[in-house]
């Protein structure tokens, strides 16, 4: 394949760099770009080659219809063919795909663009829309050409090309799961925290189910803080999660000729790895740590990129609380980042099984049932908050919990004891 360089705009302005393909799949290292902001309207977009005309892109990316996978066993002695319903993705194949992604990262250093791919598939979620897949989110829609052509997704066709052989090797893994698996694995392999993930995401079936353009944040809006809140609040994320996720800019670099942001080359990027050039947010732009926050807070190195949406993290009073904390405490940053990334990866997803499953130790557990005092009382009248708290306290005091009902009826037992005592008292009196 020829050296075709395409822009990687994204999350905070092309979170990243350019990605390049080589004559052989993994003969040279190349670093890619990161998540979630799109270039300004004036930024020229490189033409994306139509996937249908690209021999290196499988037709699966264009027209695969999601089908629930079933395992058809050979007829048993009675001649019956059993077809048990299975999860959306095969757990064993997901494990195999994860190992292949780790090998891909070792040879291509594509950590940033894989993070960006997962973020952009999930980042279209709108919490105000209940219907799936209209609500957007992590549903694999980013594999379709119509969504790939959104300005914020420029260059992500290269991420699909990188994952294509893995998808073909593990056909019983959905695109939605593959994108999020690749994103979390890239963070972990770059030295970041372990991200607790659940799988079983269902894919959308056609391009008509792709979200409209304009769902992802911009890098240089007129009011950066307000813009970030407009976009991330729509996803159901809060200020702490906005700042924590911004820390992923510790990975990747930006190229001005492709994203409209950054310098053509700096002392940190002139020697690659991969194609030299671009401007990174951090000195070690393939290492996941808290240096993004430290570099912004401390000396503003002119060779390091600071976008308007980066600078505002230390200017906005609410954002600054978390940015300061993460600059001083990497462990806290890692903890909060892992939780925010996990939450982001589930946004808008439809799971099969509904509770999802883990590939790190059995099925993911469903959320505990919310305590409802009325379930443990009689009558239709709504109880007061103080009465609900009193009931709950009594319930838990004798070994119960909102998640695990008592084996016996506590109140009935009390009534029986009272009746027995009354009967014995009457005998004594008589």
UniProtKB/TrEMBL annotation:
UniProt enzyme class: oxidoreductase
EC annotation from Swiss-Prot or TrEMBL: 1.11.1.11
UniProt keyword annotations, A-Z: Calcium, Chloroplast, Heme, Hydrogen peroxide, Iron, Membrane, Metal-binding, Oxidoreductase, Peroxidase, Plastid, Potassium, Transit peptide, Transmembrane, Transmembrane helix
Disordered: region residues: 251-276
A Gene Ontology molecular function term of the record: metal ion binding
Family listed: Belongs to the peroxidase family. Ascorbate peroxidase subfamily.
Stretches assigned to coiled coil: none
Catalytic activity: L-ascorbate + H2O2 = L-dehydroascorbate + 2 H2O
Listed PANTHER family: CATALASE-PEROXIDASE, THYLAKOID LUMENAL 29 KDA PROTEIN, CHLOROPLASTIC-RELATED
Domain Plant heme peroxidase family profile: 173-365
Protein name: L-ascorbate peroxidase
Regions of compositional bias (Basic and acidic residues) in chain numbering: 254-270
Gene Ontology cellular component list: chloroplast
Organism: Nelumbo nucifera
A Pfam family the protein falls into: peroxidase
InterPro entries registered for this protein in UniProt: Ccp1-like, Haem_peroxidase, Haem_peroxidase_sf, Peroxidase_I, Peroxidases_heam-ligand_BS
Cofactor(s) listed in the protein's UniProt record: heme b
GO biological process terms, semicolon-separated: cellular response to oxidative stress; hydrogen peroxide catabolic process; response to reactive oxygen species
Transmembrane regions listed in the UniProt entry: 410-429
Subcellular location(s) of the protein: Plastid, Chloroplast
């Amino acid at each position: 394949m020829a050296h075709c360089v395409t822009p990687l705009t994204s999350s905070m302005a092309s979170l990243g760099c350019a990605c390049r393909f080589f004559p052989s799949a993994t003969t040279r290292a190349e670093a890619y770009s990161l998540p979630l902001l799109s270039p300004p309207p004036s930024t020229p977009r490189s033409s994306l080659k139509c996937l249908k005309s690209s021999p290196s892109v499988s037709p699966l990316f264009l027209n695969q219809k999601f089908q629930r996978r079933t395992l058809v066993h050979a007829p048993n002695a009675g001649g019956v063919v059993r077809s048990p319903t299975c999860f959306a993705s095969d757990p064993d194949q997901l494990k195999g795909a994860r190992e292949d992604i780790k090998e891909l990262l070792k040879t291509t250093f594509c950590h940033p663009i894989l993070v960006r791919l997962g973020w952009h598939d999930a980042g279209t979620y709108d919490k105000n829309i209940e219907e799936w897949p209209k609500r957007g989110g992590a549903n694999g829609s980013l594999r379709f050409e119509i969504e790939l052509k959104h300005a914020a997704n420029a260059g992500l066709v290269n991420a699909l090309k990188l994952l294509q052989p893995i998808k073909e090797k593990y056909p019983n893994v959905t695109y939605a799961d593959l994108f999020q698996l690749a994103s979390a694995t890239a963070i972990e392999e770059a030295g970041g925290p372990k991200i607790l993930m659940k799988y079983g995401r269902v894919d959308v079936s056609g391009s008509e189910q792709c979200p409209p353009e304009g769902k992802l944040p911009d890098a240089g809006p007129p009011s950066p803080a307000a813009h970030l809140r407009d976009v991330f609040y729509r996803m159901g994320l809060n200020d702490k999660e906005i700042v924590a996720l911004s820390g992923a800019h510790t990975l990747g670099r930006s190229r001005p000729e492709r994203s409209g942001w950054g310098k053509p080359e700096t002392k940190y990027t002139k020697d690659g790895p991969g194609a030299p050039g671009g401007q990174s947010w951090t000195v070690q732009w393939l290492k996941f740590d808290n240096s993004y926050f430290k570099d912004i807070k401390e000396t503003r190195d002119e060779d390091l990129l600071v976008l308007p949406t980066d600078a505002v993290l230390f200017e906005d009073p609410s954002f600054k609380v978390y940015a300061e904390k993460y600059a001083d405490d990497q462990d806290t940053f890692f903890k909060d980042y892992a939780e925010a990334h996990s939450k982001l990866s589930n946004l808008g997803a439809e799971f099969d099984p509904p509770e999802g499953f883990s590939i790190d130790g059995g099925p993911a557990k469903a959320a505990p049932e919310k305590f409802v005092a009325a379930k443990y009382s009689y009558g239709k009248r709504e109880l007061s908050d103080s009465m609900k708290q009193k009931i709950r306290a009594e319930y838990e005091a004798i070994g119960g919990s909102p998640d695990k009902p008592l084996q016996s009826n506590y109140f009935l037992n009390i009534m029986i004891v009272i009746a027995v005592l009354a009967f014995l008292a009457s005998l004594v009196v008589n």
